[in-house]
Amino acid sequence: MKRILSTRGSIVPNTLIASVFIGFATLASVLFVPKDPQTGTSIHIEPTELVIEKDTEFTIDVIVESDEAVNAFAGVLEFDEAVLEVASISYNTSIADLWTQEPWFTKGDGTITFAGGTTRPGGFMGKGSLLTVTFAGKNASATALSLTGTRVLKHDGLGTDAQLRTSLDALFTIKPIPGTGDVISQSKPEEIILTTDLNNDGTTTIADVSIFMLQLASQNMRSDFNNDKRITAADLSILLDARK
Predict the structure, then answer these.
(1) Structural domains for the chain
(2) How confident is the model over 1-8, as a mean pLDDT?
(3) pLDDT tens, position by position, 201-223
(4) Distance separating alpha carbons of residues 241 and 50, to the nearest angstrom
(5) β pairing state of 193-194 and 4-5
(6) Whether residue 37 has pLDDT greater than 90
(7) Is the dihedral of CA 56, 110, 61, 143 positive or negative?
(8) What CA–CA distances, in Å, run from 190 to 1, 6, 7, 50, 222?
(9) For residues 63 and 48, what is the distance between their CA atoms, to the nearest angstrom?
């Protein structure tokens, strides 16, 4: 994941800035208007946010969701081994009954790789947990889980890739155990690290601006670049400044 320091600046075309701020104002005015649920196919992590104490175990699920028939699933779950430790991994054979690569990890790698499919007639449609991972918090810190290299194939006999919705990082905070003197790891104030690459493609582009607009509506703290606990025009300004 690319990390960008807040000290770097860039020049953004005025027309782009104007159009983005118009979109920002329009979206902000309808934040509480009910929206239709998203459709399509996705692999994502649930829950997306969690706060736990150090040395406490917690469980996450890699969820597959599709409104069309699909039959193969693959991806890599990335995590920080300095903060999290894998306690156990289980996978759902009712969704993927044929695993070409059972979920596994190697110490020091910080990844869990998986690849499987279903042999059921008609493929899979709906929503369910593909695999479940239990982690333990090793050190007090804020950390993220990311899904990369995700693929879902349509049940069309051609091995066609389903178009996936963007999978956002899941954010976890490991709290110190009371009375131990531990503190949560933080960046130095003068070196606030921003992760403006919202779609994890290695750079900050207009695609990340689009994702930001969705996260503004849901107040997803993934886009709280200035750490003020809310998503505002200030965060949009930081995102635009980081664009290449």
Answers:
(1) 4-37+185-242 (no CATH), 41-175 (2.60.40.680)
(2) 38
(3) 777 877 777 677 767 766 777 77
(4) 29
(5) antiparallel
(6) no
(7) positive
(8) 21, 9, 9, 27, 21
(9) 11
pTM: 0.60
Q: Which of 151, 147, 136, 120 is nearest to 45 (CA)?
A: 147
Rounded CA-CA distance 234/230 in Å is: 10
For the stretch 150-196, pLDDT in tens is: 999 999 888 899 998 876 678 778 777 665 555 444 444 334 445 78
Rounded Cα–Cα distance for residues 203 and 9 (Å): 15
- State the pLDDT at residue 177: 62
Select from 53, 73, 55 the least CA-distant residue to 64.
73
Q: How many C-beta atoms surround the C-beta of residue 174 within 10 A? A: 27
At 88, list the tokens.
């156990």
DSSP run (H or E) holding 28: helix 14-28
Q: How confident is the model at residue 148 (pLDDT cuts 50, 70, 90)?
A: confident
For residue 191, give every residue at least 6 positions away whose Cβ sits within 8 Å of its Cβ, in sequence order, or none. 5
Q: 29-65 burial by CB neighbour count: b if 16+ within 10 A, else e?
A: eeeeeeeeeeeebbbbbeebebeebbeeebebbbbbb
* Tokens found for residue 101: 């690569």
> How many residues belong to the chain?
244
φ/ψ (deg, to 5) at 127: -140, 135
Residue 5, number of CB atoms within 10 A of its CB: 12
- Tokens representing 143 are 């950390």
